[in-house]
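Hey team,

Sharing the Outer membrane protein TolC run so nobody has to redo it. Sequence (454 residues) first:
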Amino acid sequence: MGYKYIIAGLLIGFCGVVSAQERLLSKDAAVSLALENNFGIKVAKNQVAIADNNAGILNSGYLPSFTGTAGATYNELNSNTEYPGQFESNGSPRPDLEINDAESQSYNAALRLDYTLFDGMGRRYNFKRLKEQYQLSELQARETIENTILQLFSVYYEIARLTENENVLRQALEISKQRIKRAEYSFEYGQNTKLDILNAQVDVTNDSISLMNVQQNLANAKRDLNVVLNQNLNETFVVDTLVSFIPRLQLEDYIAQSKENNVAILQTERNMAINEYDIKVNRSGYLPTVGLSGSYGWNLNQSAATSFLPGQIIPGSNRNSLNLALGANLTWNLFDGGGTTVRVKNAKIAYENQEIFKEQVIMEVDRDILNALGIYENRLQIFQIQEQNVVTNQNNFERSKEQFQLGRITSIEFRQAQINLLNAQTNKNLAKYDAKLAELQLLQLTGQLLSVEF
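Structure output:
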């Protein structure tokens, strides 16, 4: 055997030892990591938190507004008053009146409370609308989670398929390496020609390359899963290759309840409820608004001395006042040019459109479920056929191996039996995970993807 085959065998054996030491990433653990770390799910959860804040009492309009104001003013006055042509009683000119550094200050503070007693029920319906918006955001987050879970398992089962294919190819490579030894022994004893050795070496090379390609694809798929799970790209693990299918009767129950659980249908229902509240909110424009207001204020004015009459200075003064005011107001827009009427009509049309859209979604969901069920049953039957095909090819390979060892068939015929078995095993692996993914897609359409065990 050439040194190339020895090195390839050592590398493949080393990879097998490393794989045996890797931790098992179960399906439940993968789902938990995705729910906790996935980027898209994190964003969806934040959107739900925003909707929750919007639907809270602090954003409802039911609470009063309470404001406080304060202010201060400072003035400094320098003035010089002249009296040209004016004289005192003794005949002397009237002197100028000069005021320097005359300071004045004013201070004020006030508290004001405003509360809307009645706004035509618009506040109430808008608050209910925000509650519906919150439920819609939860459904949107659920849709994101469902899509992420499907993405997760499409990668997870691809890793499982490649893992099983790797084991199959490793076994095929081992068989081909044994053929080289047998061909070399037979050649030494003159039982065959050098051609048998060369054929076996070619098969070892092909099997080695196939195994290396699968291992590279497997490493890439694991990195893809690490992205979905938002963990270290070089994180190593092995996955669970065991797959079980849901009984048909249980699937039929899920399908019968799909209209109550499908996320797309539920979203249309929430949108209809939102549109219904939009109509009521717009109708509130026909009714008056009644509000209460109250204020409490304090003012302090400190005035400086000023000149008033010729030759007289009015001394400064302090004025301190407190003010309490209560009031009620009623506002009724008796006619706004028809704007409220137009908004109500448009809201009703939007509601009718949402009803039409719901009917469309229900029909599309029914179609998608029937298609998904047909695809699932077809793939499940293919998997069962492939399982039987593996049994048949395994028996054929064992018989061919016996005949080859007895020298009754050629190495080419034996290689063909080996290839047939290899193809049957890889096709079975593909059919198994295709059927499981089709089942998961059917579960998503019935609204049960997040309620079943994986």
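Residues 1-20 have pLDDT under 50 and may be disordered.

Ping me if you want the raw files.
A.
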